Structure formats: C-alpha cells, structure tokens
Amino acid sequence: MNLKGETAVVCGAGGFIGGHLVKGLIANGVNVVRAVDVKPLDEWYQVTEGVENLSLDLKDKESCMIAADGVSLVYQLAADMGGMGFIENNKALCMLSVLTNTHMLMAAQAKGVKRFFYSSSACVYNGEKQTSPDVVALKESDAYPALPEDGYGWEKLFSERMCRHFEEDYGLVCRVARYHNVYGPQGTWNGGREKAPAAICRKVIEAKNSGVHEIDIWGDGKQTRSFMYIDDCVKGTEMIMESEIDEPINLGSSELVTINQLVDLAEDIAGIKLKRTYDLNAPKGVNGRNSDNTLIQEKLGWEPSIRLRDGLERTYRWIEQEIATGAEGK
C-alpha cells in the first residue's frame, strides 16, 4: 500500500517518537490531519503547524472516536512509558495503557479506518532468554511461551493480540512493530523517564560541566543492549505500515553494546574520562537484549543502520545545548 495522499492521525504525537513521526509522514506525502496527546500542547516535545493538534485522554473511548474520525490511517503510539527506572516502578500505570489501545482499535473499526499501526516493544520478549549479557539476538518467535517484562511488557503483548484478533474478526488491517530502545534529539533526557543513551549523555555533560569527573551507572555496566536512532525508527515505522507483514516484527538496531561501552562512546564524544561507580540496587532491566533482524531484512530488504556512535553524538550535542540554555528536560 502506498501511503502518499492518505489521511492519518498520530496518537502520542506529543511524545518523542510521535513528534518525529508526524514530521516524517508529512515529508513523505502522508496527510497528517490530526495529532493527539494527553499532555497540554505546551508540554509536547514537538508541535507541527498545519495539523489539528488536540489534547485528549485516549484512555477514554469517546476521545478515541474523535481521534479516528475521518482518517484512513491510525498510528497508535500513545502510552505511559519511560526508561527502566520508570517502568519498573509504575507497573499499574503502564498496564492502564491497555485502555488506550483497546479503545483506539474499537474507534478505528467503527470509523472505517484502513490501516492501524501499533508500536509494541522488545519488552514483550521472554525474560528467560535475556538472562546473560552474551544474549542470542531475539527473533520474533521468542515472545512465546510468554514471560514478558512485568507490567509494561505484559500490556504490550496483550495489545499485540488485540490487534491480531481485530484483524481476524473485523478485517481491520493491523501492523505491529516491536521497538528496541529508541533514542535521539528532542527526547526525554531528565526527570526519571529518560532511557540509557540520554541518561548517560546527561551524566557525562554534567560531570564535564561541574568538574567532578565521576559517573554513577545503574547495574554493573556489563548488561547489553542495542539502541535505534530515531530516524531509523521513523523510516521503519513507515515501511512496516505500508507492508503486507501481518505479524509483529522487530524494529531495532542489531549493533550490540554493553552499558560500559555506551559510556565509553559518550566519554569519547565529550573528550573526557570519568571515574565510574556502579549502583547495583538501581533498576537495570534484563542482562542482555538484542534485535534479530532476519525477518525485517527478508520482508523489507532493509534494517536500521545508523551507527550508535553517530546517533549518540547528535543526541549528546542536542542535550548539551539544552543544558547550556537552561532547559530542564521533559
């Protein structure tokens, strides 16, 4: 399906990924007629002119009906989420996002929407497959038998099934991408919801600015992850929505690094070396997680390819400028 000329709503448009997605869709010829987020407009990460920007709580079914009215495409990214420090300590709040997903699916079906995109997460994967830093990259079938991240991961996995059954029972074409650790400029870098790349960049910048050349790292620093730059995320989202991929699919980088290596990169960008301390009691998530990109390469002939070093430098410079101008972060 060629999406050019189609009308769309982006739910969660006031967030980091949603804000970038609105601009990316418009640049590629999709008519984004509406952008929706629960936050007041002045708290959105990015606001795009020429779009109907609405502050609505999409846990409410009637708000979802407003959001889905008169559009052919729904991009459902709205959720209560954040980095590991947030999702480990707000399980009930994360689970409540199931209301948003359920009501948006119901609204999309009622309003005759052609296609529904749902942003799932690598947190759906079975935790027993992520106990070692030397993790085998996770392929899509590794979500079952189910043992996802408690709270947030269970909600994502349940909502994936909802998409599947709305397609089977009602004919609503659904596309599901499992995002792996998205980062980049215009994202959260302070306040508790930030993810590892932004948190590390902020800590390195603060250490450099203060002259106290120390950094506190959550966990032992040996846990492994892959991190996907926002431009790859937006491109992959558009490609998956256009595709005929009927199953949830990984959308993530396959470039695996330890948290210590992530700190190495940030130090190199800053031109500084820091003394490291390790908080073994802090939330650190699974010991190892990486994206197996076999399926996306097979289906799309593409995978996220922006190197972590390049994306991290762009992110670092943006956060550095934010701090220099006195911004407090979101």
CATH class of the largest domain: Alpha Beta
CATH superfamily of the largest domain: NAD(P)-binding Rossmann-like Domain
Write the element-wise H/E pattern from the N-terminal end onward. EHEEHEHHHEHEEHEEEHEEHEHH
CATH topology of the largest domain: Rossmann fold
Percent of residues in beta strands: 15-25%
User: Any low-confidence stretches, pLDDT <50, length ≥5?
Assistant: none
Please tally the helical runs, counting DSSP H or I stretches of 4 or more residues.
11
Assign an overall shape: globular
Number of strands: 13
Q: Going across the biggest sheet, name each strand in turn.
A: 3-2-1-4-5-6-11
Structure description:
With 330 residues, the chain is an alpha/beta fold. It folds into two domains: 7-182 and 228-251, 3-Layer(aba) Sandwich (Rossmann fold), CATH 3.40.50; 186-225 and 256-324, UDP-galactose 4-epimerase, domain 1. It has helices spanning 16-27, 61-68, 84-87, 91-95, 97-110, 152-170, 196-210, 230-242, 259-270, 294-300, 308-324; strands at 7-11, 31-37, 52-55, 73-76, 115-121, 173-179, 182-183, 214-218, 224-226, 228-229, 249-251, 256-258, 275-279. Strands 3-2-1-4-5-6-11 form a seven-stranded parallel β-sheet, with helices on both faces. A two-stranded parallel ribbon has the order 7-10. Strand 5 (115-121), helix 6 and strand 6 (173-179) form a beta-alpha-beta unit. Helix 5 runs parallel beside helix 6 and helix 7 crosses helix 11 (308-324). 46% of the residues are buried.
